[in-house]
Design brief:
alpha+beta, Gyrase A, domain 2, single chain, four-stranded antiparallel beta sheet
Length: 127
């Protein structure tokens, strides 16, 4: 799996500003993320809450049969969209690091298993 496999399809995975928050204060916005669930909601909420400018960040799934989440961000002074972008970038970096670490561990495991199998064959041949 390459990092290009992790890029969402923009035709399916859309992001919009909830109509109830359009035109209001830039520091308090609700975003609707289509075709997403608790996986991205909780991860993104965690990353956004690490930002000291954030006063509140939470998400909800309106109904279990709907594939969307509502993500609410409230900041002290920065526009919420900047905080969202930063959170998405940071989440992507963490995800890519986890993927790289996992792939490296799998490679090391396979290499060690191969070396152990070769050593086992050599020992059996010497008897």
């Amino acid at each position: 799996m390459s990092s290009s496999d992790l890029i969402p399809n923009p035709e399916i995975h859309t992001l919009e500003v909830a109509t109830s928050t359009e035109g209001e204060d830039e520091t308090c916005v609700t975003y609707v993320m289509h075709h997403e669930d608790h996986t991205i909601g909780n991860s993104l909420r965690y990353m956004i809450l690490k930002n000291p400018e954030v006063e509140y960040c939470g998400y909800s799934v309106p109904h279990p049969s709907e594939e969307k989440i509502n993500l609410r961000i409230q900041t002290s002074s920065k526009p919420a969209v900047e905080v969202l972008k930063t959170g998405l970038v940071n989440l992507q970096k963490v995800s890519l690091h986890a993927l790289d670490t996992f792939q490296e561990a799998v490679m090391n495991f396979k290499q060690n298993r191969k070396e152990n199998n070769e050593q086992g064959d050599v020992e059996m041949d010497s008897d």
